[in-house]
Design goal:
By secondary structure, this protein is an all-alpha fold. 50% of the residues lie in helices and 0% in strands. The chain has 3 helices and no strands.
Length: 68
């Protein structure tokens, strides 16, 4: 469970916001690994090559509409 309390206070110049970025990146990585690649491909509104870069597991799945 995520806590609303920061690990590092925001008033510290560079490392303050850094803990927020790390938490978000880890949460997105966790979610991308749990969502089936087919669902990500179907819901992705942008170019497929961007999704393949963000979630490499989707690069190996083909769709009916064509290739990357």
């Amino acid at each position: 469970m995520l806590s609303p309390i920061d690990l590092i206070p925001e008033f510290l110049p560079i490392i303050g916001p850094l803990d927020d970025i790390v938490v978000v990146a880890l949460a997105l990585r966790y979610a991308a690994r749990r969502i089936p690649p087919e669902a990500l491909i179907e819901a992705w509104p942008a170019e497929r090559r961007i999704l393949a870069r963000l979630a490499p597991a989707t690069a190996t799945h083909s769709t009916d509409t064509g290739a990357l």
